[in-house]
Amino acid sequence: MKKKYFFIQVVLLILLSFGSLKLQAQSRKSSKDYLVQITTSFGNMYLVLYDDTPKHKNNFIKLVKKKFYKDLLFHRIIKGFMIQGGDPDSRNAPKGKMLGMGGSDMAKIEAEFRSEHIHKKGALAAARDGNPKKASNACQFYIVHGRPVTGKELNAIELRKGIKYTPKQREAYTTLGGFPPLDQNYTVFGEVVKGFEVIDKIAQQEKDRANRPYKDIKMDIKVRKMRKKKITRKFGYKYNQ
């Protein structure tokens, strides 16, 4: 009887040890994140993707790993608003060609609106058409350029949309700037943590009537895993979502 009891104890200890090792492995895995690097002729932008918009995050990473965005253009730029890219039809597109419809044949991504994520300067968001569910285009995205927003403007948006900005969000809009009219209408799934000057340079380029830059602005996007602590230390980004 004692031997049997001892054997059971040993088995339980082994199972507990295995479970502990598994939890440690999961903890080490969750301590890492994907750092996004968008390379352009004006410099590099570094971005972090949000964990609480998993459909958009996973889709974006999948496309980047497939080199989907290699040599695509920032085909639409509006100073004080945003810079947009990711249209597969923009690769090697002749001058003057209208762009912005590419990717419509790909499965849309379900909207993932989060009150925590706003259209502050540097916000990464998914483009979309006018579909009633506000589902996102699978590949086109934009990065907010924006402008400083007054408290009065934010009050009006809150009243019109029935939302409430936190003090931190208000500070971001009034200092860093952004474009709050789009909040809760387009999915924001990441943000720039370094390279804001690149957004400024791209947004200021000369363009045609369709807002396409006269000079092609190509992109290349890569992702690499990095410890969250290192991202915080290197870029000042705090993981609080």
Can you describe what's shown?
This protein has 241 residues and is an alpha+beta fold. The chain contains six helices and eight strands, in the order αββαββββααβαβα. Mean pLDDT is 91; it is low at 20-29. The protein has helices at 2-30, 54-65, 151-161, 167-176, 196-203, 228-235, and strands at residues 32-40, 43-49, 74-78, 82-85, 123-126, 141-144, 188-194, 220-227. Strands 3-4-6-5-7-2-1-8 form an eight-stranded antiparallel beta sheet. The termini are far apart. A hairpin with a 3-residue loop joins strand 3 and strand 4 (82-85).
Describe the SSE topology.
Layout: H1 2-30, E1 32-40, E2 43-49, H2 54-65, E3 74-78, E4 82-85, E5 123-126, E6 141-144, H3 151-161, H4 167-176, E7 188-194, H5 196-203, E8 220-227, H6 228-235
Antiparallel strand pairs: 1-2, 1-8, 2-7, 3-4, 4-6, 5-6, 5-7
Q: Helical residue percent?
A: 25-40%
Mean pLDDT: 91
Sheet-strand content, in percent, reads 15-25%
The residue ranges in which pLDDT falls below 50 over 5 or more consecutive positions are: 20-29
| Main sheet summary | 8 strands, antiparallel
Assembly level = single chain
Radius of gyration: 22 Å
Query: How many separate helices?
Result: 6
Strand order, sheet with most strands: 3-4-6-5-7-2-1-8
- Structural class, from secondary structure content? alpha+beta
C-alpha termini separation: 53 Å
The best one-word shape is: globular
DSSP summary, beta strand count: 8
- Order of secondary-structure elements: HEEHEEEEHHEHEH
